């Protein structure tokens, strides 16, 4: 960049202002990254807990399902599974976390009992249906938590790349410009000082020669 910049005092002031802006931007991005990293690790605990909950309720639900099939026959259980509506509405909102759009999902309350008539339905089948409602809720929790975790992780990577670009490319480039401009201006000042000394020396030499000529002329006139 040094070869493309005009080595003037105005350019030096502009480069200093750019350096201040870039340094301030890097500091802000680092603070944002640190805050996001804190949120990320806090959310990892929630994600692990949600996964653990899903694993637990899934094991219980499949145990109930196998028991229901054994007691009420697989055909009866599968037939009853089609009685559900299949609808599962969730309330999702978007939160702004340090400039990152992340989902916030509110899991609706569901009835604990199955949504079919318990007449001629075994207790184990009803329990299996209830347990799988819990599995559905656990899946939604995992999806919401891990989606938020992935968004934050992507933003951390993006912010880190911006910080690295500023600290490793932009700021060093501006500092090179400043050193280049200062070097040229210092050289110009030295050259101007040297030129002024030469001019001053010439003027003094001419003045001295003029005084000597005037003195010689006065001596000559006195001799006549």
TrEMBL record:
* One Pfam family named in its UniProt record: ATP-synt_D
Q: What is the lineage of its organism?
A: Bacteria, Thermotogati, Deinococcota, Deinococci, Deinococcales
Q: What does this protein do?
A: Produces ATP from ADP in the presence of a proton gradient across the membrane.
Q: Which InterPro entries match?
A: V_ATPase_D
Name by which UniProt lists this protein: V-type ATP synthase subunit D
Q: Which UniProt keywords apply?
A: ATP synthesis, Hydrogen ion transport, Ion transport, Transport
Keyword Transport: yes or no?
yes
Does the keyword section mention Transport? yes
Species, as recorded: Deinococcus xinjiangensis
> Would you identify the family this protein belongs to, as annotated?
Belongs to the V-ATPase D subunit family.
